[in-house]
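Sequence of Tat pathway signal sequence domain protein (Streptomyces violaceusniger).
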Amino acid sequence: MAELPPLRPLSRRRVLGSMAAAAVGTPIALGQLTSGATSASAASRAAAAQLLWHPDPSSDGLKAFEGIEADRGGAHPDRKYVIVEGGDHYRFNIWKDDRDTTGDGDRQRTESRGMVQGGSKVKMRDGETWSLSYEMFMPTSLHGTSKFTHIFQTKTPVDNGGPYITLDLGRSGSTELLRARAYANSGSPDIASTNLAPLRNKWITIEWTFTVGSNGKAACVVRNGTGSGAPVAVQGSMSNVKMPDQDDYQRPKWGIYRSVESASSDILDTYLLLRNFRASKA
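Predicted 3D structure, token representation.
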């Protein structure tokens, strides 16, 4: 498996700045003020947002999630699938010969599910508006594929419904794509899509805003770098998005979940790195 290049340590100024930006909750690109709105009203909305999930990998470890889904058939007990690396990020490993217990051997999965803060599940329910953000590192060995490759998805635990919203690594001919999608809507349309190549081998930022419901809303901003000031690679929003809580809750999942029926040259030993998770309810 390819080795991760050395990471530069975060300065105290950058850490404090990232925390301050995350505490605001809604990404700037998704929360533009309407005409005539005052700065006081914007400050009021920011103060009202509740930061409900902000795990520290070094202290929370895998307890930041409801669970891990990897090698569920127990074929490779010696492999480490989801680990804390470097004290500040999570590493999701996957091997080309992994197979999940679902799908008759046509797929593989290394995922975390859910959000846990202080031992309690954090749940997104109908009518609520949430902002989720995190930083992500994708190596060259993690390819876009002709069949599905989800690196983020939301589902409903009560019925395993979904996926409703996904972040996918896709392919159009020789061009690999990063695609935010309303996956449960007819045709699984893109909310936002961009070329994958410029976003590899660096830390980038993903910002989601969801209003949960059968006719909900979803928006995504991808920043080519870290922090709220990083340039926007792509952004988009969509109404009438199908993401109901099914009288339960919408649960996010992170990692690599992909079909192995794509070209074998796209199914490699690889990994995904994630850090600086934040989830806020408006």
